Amino acid sequence: MKPGKRIFITLPGDSLGAGENHDVRCFHFDPAIPLPVELPPGSGEFKAEDLNGEMILSGILWELAENPGGGHAAYYRNLAAEIKPGIFNELTEAAILKAKNGDHKTALDILSLLEGLCPRRPLLLLNRALVLEEYAFSLKNRAGGGGPAADEYVRAAEDAESAYESALASPLPDTLFYAGLFYHRSSDYGRAADCFAAYLEGESGNDPESAEKYSKAGELLDEIRKNSLDNESFKEALDLIRRGEEEQGILKARDFLERQPGAGNGWFLLGWGLRRLGRWEDGAACFEKALELGAANADALNELAICRMELNCFDEARRLLVKALYKEPDNIRFISNMGILALKQGRDDEAAAFFRTVLELEPDDPIAKAWIGEK
């Protein structure tokens, strides 16, 4: 979403005094302040008789987005509210709809317009964080083969984390809840526990919606504390494996599991490190334990399938991947692994179908591009 051509005009203070086509005749303007107006696409020179409220409102929104601290910002904000009193709710709903339809970039553009109009509003900060989180994890599911999608995921995840940090500076109760979910989803269990504890302390859960959130926050906080997922050994193991220092990460994960043998996430983490080192049998045993304990279900199925595939247990690998895809049908990592499995079984036509599906979802996926390019 890009701004159109914007010009500045001045208008008389009381009204335009023009014909009935003017929907701005009832607004009061300060003749001393230039008014930003966005011209319609493809229009030529500005004509006063074509002026309408939408042109002024659009011009104001883009001007505030680009110059939120400008000298006339307060006047522009008041005028925008006069032109369209429900502008905040209307644009918020539009951003949410765009995000739900997968158009996260347009949703973020709309939220940027709102930030200029209503700077630092807590609900707006939370909405930005939620959209960035959803965008980041949609990219994660497309980043199975590395490449641009993987790099974009890392950037989006960092942006989402920064957005939550900004929102937590003056949090709504919902901000604490959703930030807790984000940190839990990112395996940052210490910060997740802090957010959930603060949310439970301030929220009563009286109405049905808040009662559901209250219950979820309590359940996840209990899981973190019961399994000591905010333990330093767990966090260090996770960071080491993420950085490619698997041997050290495995030692830390084993140290954690000695004290918390019932922590499914710990077994998943150990299996992940072992799998990355090509220790397929050992990794498979850990993922089976993680699944038995109910941790990281879809990802554990996928990781166990990789181990089984490398051990030539193709039927078992396929069964596991089908179960993973049932839980997350659009996960590119899972679809790509189905393609790799088909290749290992000599089913080239089937592999091609899977890789074409991957390219429909992520045109730059390097594994699918390389294989399709060879055919």
Short description, anyone?
By secondary structure, the protein is mainly α. Helices cover 67% and strands 2% of the residues.
Descriptive notes:
The protein is mainly α and 375 residues long. Among the domains are: 6-83, no CATH class; 171-226, no CATH class; 259-374, Alpha Horseshoe (Serine Threonine Protein Phosphatase 5, Tetratricopeptide repeat), CATH 1.25.40. It is 67% helix and 2% strand. The protein is built from 18 helices and 2 strands. The protein has helices at 53-66, 73-83, 87-100, 104-117, 122-140, 148-167, 173-185, 189-202, 208-226, 232-242, 246-259, 264-276, 280-292, 297-310, 314-327, 332-344, 348-361, 366-374, and strands spanning 6-9, 35-38. The chain has a two-stranded antiparallel ribbon. The longest helix is centred in the middle third of the chain and has 20 residues, at 148-167. The protein is globular, with a radius of gyration of 26 Å. The two termini are 38 Å apart.
